[in-house]
Structures are given as C-alpha cells and as structure tokens.
C-alpha cells in the first residue's frame, strides 16, 4: 500500500460521496456547438463604484459557492443532475486596467457575442457593480429586440452622469437617456427609505418608471407583484431582463454588499420573486451585481447569488 494514499492532489476535493452531485459539477466551459440550459459570464468590474467595492471578485466567489449546493431539490422532488441540466460558462470578460469606458465597451461586445452563440436559452451575467448593466442591456437589445427590465434594488440608480460619470449609480438613467429603453419599460422593486435623493424619484416618475417601495413589497404578495410587473411589460417588449442588485436584501442577509442598509428584503422574498418571474417565456436574461466578497462574512451574499442560479436551472 502506498504511503501517499491519503495525500490528496492540489485542487481536488477532499471528500466525495458517491451519491451526491454538487451544483458546480454541472458547469461546462463554453466551446462552439455546446449547448446548455443556462449560460453564465462574468463581468468583473468595480472601478466605477461610488462606494469602495471589491465586486470584481464576485464572479469567482459565486462560482465557488455553487460547490456548496447539491443538485437535489427536495420540495420539487427534482434532481438537476438526473435531469442532465447544464451550465455553460463563458468565463470572465477581461477588463482594461485603467479605462472604465473601455471596460464598458468590452462588456457590451462580449455579451453581444455570447448571446449570438445561442449556447443556452437563459443567460446570467455575474457582476461586478451595477454600472455593467448599461452595456449588457444595450447588447441584449441589439440581439433580442426591445427590452423590459424588472430591477430589484434599494436604489433607483438614476443618478445624473455630470457629477460622477458612468458610475454604478447611473446605469438606468444612461439606458433611458441614450434611448436603449423607455422609462415605462423599467419596473423597480424594493426601493428603500433614506437610500435615494428625491430628485431621482421625481426623475423616475417623470420618465414613466414604475416604482415599488419596500412598503409595497411588505403589503402585497410577491407573486402578485411580480405577475403584475410581467403583465405590464409582456405586450410592450420583446424580452424581459431581470437586474438583481443584491443590496435589495436587508443588511442582515447581505453583508457583502458595499451599500448595505436596514429595511430590505428577506432572501426568501427575493427567491420567490425570481422563481415567479422565471416562469414567463419572455424572461431570458438576468444580472446579479453588487457583491464584494472581501466584505462577505462566510460568503453569505455570494451563497444567495449561487442559490438564485440554482433556481434558474429549474426554469
């Protein structure tokens, strides 16, 4: 018997249960002609963040957290491995070391190219901060047509660009002002007290944006709220995009968000919202943004993001 029998190779799992499949095992690196159920692509950009942020580390952290989940859903009696569900991974977009504008252009080019491959019917972009969404939505519009957005967020992200340029506080204002979306095609859910300036709420209303505050979330069943949003958009747009800023969660559940605060959603509410939205045939793209793994106690926020990826595999 070899004296090295109990020494594991670097990078290999220390323990493997023959009956257990981890979600990370469903990931296949993208190659031409390979198809899957969902595709993921990392947009590791956090230089434009208003708050100090290490969100550029989030795509790898979220992928790593997929190893925390098995493929079996006990409530639905479904095993994703037995159903041969697959995640096509395009990897991470390489960012320019200094130019934010160049980074945004690379994100646009890469998302457009990835979408054109038709590698999967559903695509998830792993941010990065929320500034990436202007580029991703622009790319989706050019490949899939008119875009409607359901945004889960504590903030409007409708800040003016004159005071700070294309920061993570400006993505939806930039989309509206550059003509990529109409204000009436943007629905914001989870907007919180003391998180925004009145001027940006006024701008939202002027542009026809639908705003649901956390009071609305607390007083209305989540399934009803999401179905209302879907019904509002479905006849006006070609595709529906979910933008998930993880700071929509209460600070108790999202320690890894740079802009945490009290009064936010419970993870179960966010999961139910995504699960409900995914049932609609026009929902085809989602981003998950604003996680800083350097602040994230025991990967709490990244694990929630990974859990949302698991839900998309049930689509």
UniProtKB/TrEMBL annotation:
Cofactor binding, note field: Binds 2 manganese ions per subunit.
Name under which the protein is recorded: Formimidoylglutamase
UniProt organism field: Rossellomorea aquimaris
Keywords attached to this entry: Histidine metabolism, Hydrolase, Manganese, Metal-binding
Cross-referenced InterPro entries: HutG, Ureohydrolase, Ureohydrolase_dom_sf, Ureohydrolase_Mn_BS
NCBIfam families xref list: hutG
Sequence similarity: Belongs to the arginase family.
Cofactors, names only: Mn(2+)
């Amino acid at each position: 018997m070899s004296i090295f029998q109990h020494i594991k190779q670097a990078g290999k799992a220390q323990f493997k249960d023959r009956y257990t499949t981890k979600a990370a095992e469903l990931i296949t690196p993208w190659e031409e002609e390979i198809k899957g159920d969902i595709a993921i692509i990392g947009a590791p950009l956090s230089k434009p963040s208003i708050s100090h942020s290490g969100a550029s580390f989030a795509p790898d952290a979220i992928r790593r957290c997929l190893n925390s989940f098995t493929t079996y859903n006990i409530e639905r009696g479904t095993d994703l491995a037995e159903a041969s569900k697959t995640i096509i991974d395009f990897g991470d977009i390489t960012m320019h070391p200094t130019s934010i504008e160049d980074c945004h252009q690379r994100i646009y080019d890469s998302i457009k190219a990835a979408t054109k491959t038709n590698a999967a019917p559903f695509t998830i972009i792993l941010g990065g901060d929320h500034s990436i969404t202007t580029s991703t939505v622009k790319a989706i519009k050019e490949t899939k047509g008119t875009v409607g957005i359901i945004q889960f967020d504590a903030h409007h992200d409708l800040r003016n660009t004159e005071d700070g340029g294309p920061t993570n506080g400006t993505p939806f204002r930039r989309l509206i002002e550059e003509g990529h979306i109409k204000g009436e095609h943007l629905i914001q859910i989870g907007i919180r007290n003391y998180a925004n300036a009145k001027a940006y709420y006024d701008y939202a209303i002027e542009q026809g944006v639908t705003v649901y505050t956390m009071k609305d979330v607390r007083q209305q069943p989540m399934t009803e709220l999401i179905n209302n949003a879907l019904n509002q958009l479905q006849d006006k747009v070609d595709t529906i995009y979910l933008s998930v800023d993880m700071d929509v969660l209460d600070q108790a559940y999202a320690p890894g968000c740079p802009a945490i605060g009290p009064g936010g959603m419970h993870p179960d509410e966010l999961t139910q919202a995504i699960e409900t939205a995914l049932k609609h045939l026009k929902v085809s793209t989602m981003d998950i943004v604003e996680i800083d793994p350097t602040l994230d106690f025991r990967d709490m926020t990244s694990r929630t993001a990974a859990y949302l990826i698991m839900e998309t595999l049930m689509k």
